[in-house]
Specification:
- The structure is a single chain.
- The protein is mostly helical.
- The protein folds into 3 domains: 33 residues; 62 residues, Winged helix-like DNA-binding domain superfamily/Winged helix DNA-binding domain (Arc Repressor Mutant, subunit A); 33 residues.
- The protein has a 3-stranded antiparallel β-sheet with strand order 1-3-2.
- A hairpin with a 2-residue loop joins strand 2 and strand 3.
- The longest helix is centred in the first third of the chain and has 39 residues.
- It is elongated, with a radius of gyration of 24 Å.
- The N and C termini lie far apart (65 Å).
């Protein structure tokens, strides 16, 4: 390969890398927004409890709101946050609104947390070794 061909190959690789970086950057921002929405939705005890209640079965809005000492309007605001995060689905049948859990948006959140598992396991292993060595002395 001569100098001109080599320069062309290098330029082509750089262009691909730059294009992939832009694409990956866009995808990373999309995942980050999804993570932000998921973690934001999980950030309130009422919303976490609502998700727990929906793990068992589909519920009407009024059934989901019933266990909480808040107004139906207040419960609806929490439901809206969960819907906006994609964690619950609403099916309307006549005047009835049924809600069901859609846990798929939690997968990236779980994967993100799981990425730190190795880090913490390593730290705990190091602490365990340190404590065992201290007992031997």
């Amino acid at each position: 390969m001569d100098g001109a061909e080599s320069a062309l190959v290098v330029a082509t690789r750089r262009a691909r890398c730059k294009r992939n970086t832009v694409t990956n950057g866009i995808l990373n921002r999309m995942v980050e927004r999804s993570l932000d929405a998921s973690y934001g939705a999980l950030g309130h005890e009422i919303r976490r409890t609502m998700l727990e209640l929906l793990r068992g079965d589909e519920l009407r809005v009024t059934e989901l709101a019933e266990p909480f000492d808040i107004s139906l309007a207040g419960a609806s605001k929490h439901i809206r946050v969960l819907e906006d995060a994609g964690l619950i689905r609403r099916t309307v049948v006549g005047r009835e609104h049924f809600l069901s859990l859609d846990a798929r948006p939690l997968k990236p959140a779980a994967e993100w947390i799981d990425g730190y598992r190795t880090f913490w396991e390593g730290r705990f292993d190091a602490l365990d070794r340190h404590l065992r060595e201290g007992r031997r002395r």
